[in-house]
Specification:
By secondary structure, the chain is mainly alpha-helical. It contains 11 helices and 5 strands; from the N terminus they run ββααβαααββαααααα.
């Protein structure tokens, strides 16, 4: 998929509105940059065959909004900072450019960057990170009222539906926007994202129906024991 953004100098925050240190994604404070999660998505964008010229940070961010954010949303916040780190490590080069009176820098991958990217493809990632921030409000719903719970379930469904529509637009534009030779890997990636989005949307519809008959958030729900048992069974498979 030709799957950002915080302005430089502002603190980055996660989905719980907590400040995320730049070094966690950018690699400051030690450690080898190839292992830092926030850098590889940008290096991968620079390395895509078919990009026959250097790209500005604005262009990189624009591509990331269409692609990387669907599978690694945390890196999206740092798209204007990451290219500079790649240059510092020798994985990219920067050249001055101008559009009218506006000056900017353009970035392109180096041979060292391509080697590092290829080596990174052999490494194991941190694993799946499930992030539906609205679900936290469901998790603690017993501390509020049932109407709040219903509203939060509704919001989860609405957010998933919006993501489904956005992803559909990305897929619809793929023929015009995809780089040569990327259709197969794009399709593999977008199917997983689409399936996960549909699962969340279906869950919201189910939960909305179930909670519709509740009088309170601490209700005795007969389905609870069956759900726990089903999760245990799946874990044992």
């Amino acid at each position: 998929m030709q799957f950002g953004l915080a302005r430089a100098g502002r603190p980055r925050r996660d989905h719980a509105n907590q400040v995320v240190p730049d070094e966690e994604l950018l690699g400051e404070g030690g450690g080898d940059v190839p292992e830092r999660p926030g850098l590889r998505p940008v290096l991968g964008l620079l390395g895509i065959s078919g990009w026959e010229r250097p790209w500005t940070t604005y262009e990189i961010a624009k591509q990331a909004r269409r692609s990387v954010r669907w599978v690694w949303p945390r890196a999206e916040r740092l798209m204007y900072d990451i290219p500079k780190k790649l240059v510092e490590q020798g994985y990219a080069v920067a050249t001055p450019a101008s559009t009218g009176n506006r000056r900017s820098m353009q970035y392109s991958i180096t041979d060292a960057g391509r080697r590092a990217l290829r080596e990174w493809l052999d490494t194991e990632g941190a694993g799946r990170r499930f992030d539906v921030e609205q679900l936290i409000r469901v998790f603690y719903a017993e501390q509020g009222d049932v109407e709040q719970l219903r509203r939060n379930i509704e919001r989860i469904g609405e957010q998933a539906a919006a993501s489904r529509r956005d992803l559909g637009q990305v897929a619809g534009d793929a023929e015009e926007t995809a780089m040569p030779g990327r259709a197969a890997v794009n399709a593999l990636s977008i199917k997983l994202v689409a399936d996960l989005t549909e699962t969340i949307e279906n869950w919201a519809a189910w939960a909305r129906t179930e909670v519709g008959g509740w009088d309170a958030t601490d209700t005795e729900w007969p389905e609870a024991d069956a759900i726990f048992a089903e999760v245990v069974r799946r874990g044992a498979e």
